[in-house]
Please model this.
Amino acid sequence: MKRKPTRIALWRRTSLMVFALTLSASLAFAGPNKLSKDLQEQSGSKQVDVIVQFNHAPTAAFLQNVVSRGGTIKQNLGRFKGAVYTVSSSSLADLAADPDVAYISPDRPLYSNGNNKSAAVLDRQWNRRQLRFEQQQRGI
Model:
C-alpha cells in the first residue's frame, strides 16, 4: 500500500528543487570576475597601468608570464603577492584567464586626505613643550 505524500513533504520537495535550480543558474552565469569594473569598460589597444595580484607570492616565472603577454613591469610588490604593469587593454581578458592571477585592478594615484597644517601645529606644540622642559631643567 503506497502512502500519499503530505502537503508539507510536497512543499519541502518543491522549495528544495527551486533552491537547487536557482543556485545552479547563479553559479553557471556568475563566473569568477578577476577584472575590476573600471577595467571591464576598457577596450582597444590603449596602454593601462594595472596592479596584478597573484594567488601566491610572485616568482620570476609569474612576473615573466605577464611580460610575455605584452606587459611591461613597473614595480614588484613582493610581499603583497602582486606587481604593477603597463599592459594593453586588449590583453586584460587573456591575463584574467590565467589561473595564477587573483585580481587585476587599475593603478590609481593616491592622495592624502590629511591636513599638513595639523602636522606643523603639532610640531610647534612639541617644540614649545620641549623648550619649557629644558627651561625648567635649567631653572630659568
